[in-house]
Design brief:
By secondary structure, the protein is mainly α. It has 3 helices and no strands.
Length: 139
C-alpha cells in the first residue's frame, strides 16, 4: 500500500468518525430538547393543578363559612385559616395605627403658622394642593 492510499484510508476513517460523532451529538441535542419540552409541559400541568387545588380550597372554605362542612378535619383546618385571617387583619390594623401615629407626629412637629407649600403650591407633607391642605387643617 502506498503512502497516499494509507493517507486516504485514514482520512476516510477520520471522516466517518467525525460523521458518527456529529450524528451522536445531534441525537443527544434532540433528546435534550425533547426532555426540556416535556419538562415545560409538566410545569404547565402542575400550575394548572395548583390553580384547581386553590379553587377547591376556596370552595371548601366557602362551604365552611356557610356551615355546610361536616368533615371534622376540614372544619378544624378552616378554623385555623379563619384564625390566621383574623391575625392578618390585626397586623394590618397595627400598620394602619402606626401610620396614623406617624402622621400625627409629623403634624405636631410641623409649624403651620407660615406657608409650607414652597414654590410648587403643594404641601411638603402629603403633596396636596395648598388650598386643599388649608381646608383640611380647618377641619
Amino acid at each position: 500500500m502506498s503512502f497516499f492510499e494509507e493517507l486516504q484510508k485514514k482520512v476516510q476513517k477520520g471522516t466517518e468518525l467525525a460523521r458518527k460523532g456529529t450524528e451522536y451529538a445531534l441525537k443527544q441535542a434532540e433528546r435534550s430538547l425533547k426532555t426540556e419540552a416535556v419538562k415545560v409541559d409538566i410545569s404547565a400541568l402542575k400550575k394548572k393543578a395548583d390553580r384547581k387545588m386553590m379553587s377547591l380550597a376556596m370552595k371548601a372554605y366557602e362551604l365552611y363559612e356557610n356551615n355546610n362542612v361536616d368533615n371534622e378535619e376540614m372544619v378544624e383546618i378552616c378554623k385555623e385559616i379563619k384564625t390566621l385571617r383574623w391575625q392578618i387583619d390585626e397586623k394590618w390594623n397595627e400598620i394602619d395605627a402606626l401610620k396614623k401615629e406617624e402622621v400625627y407626629a409629623a403634624d405636631k412637629s410641623q409649624d403651620y403658622s407660615g406657608d409650607d407649600t414652597g414654590k410648587s403650591g403643594f404641601s411638603e407633607r402629603n403633596s396636596e394642593p395648598a388650598e386643599e391642605k388649608q381646608e383640611i387643617d380647618k377641619e
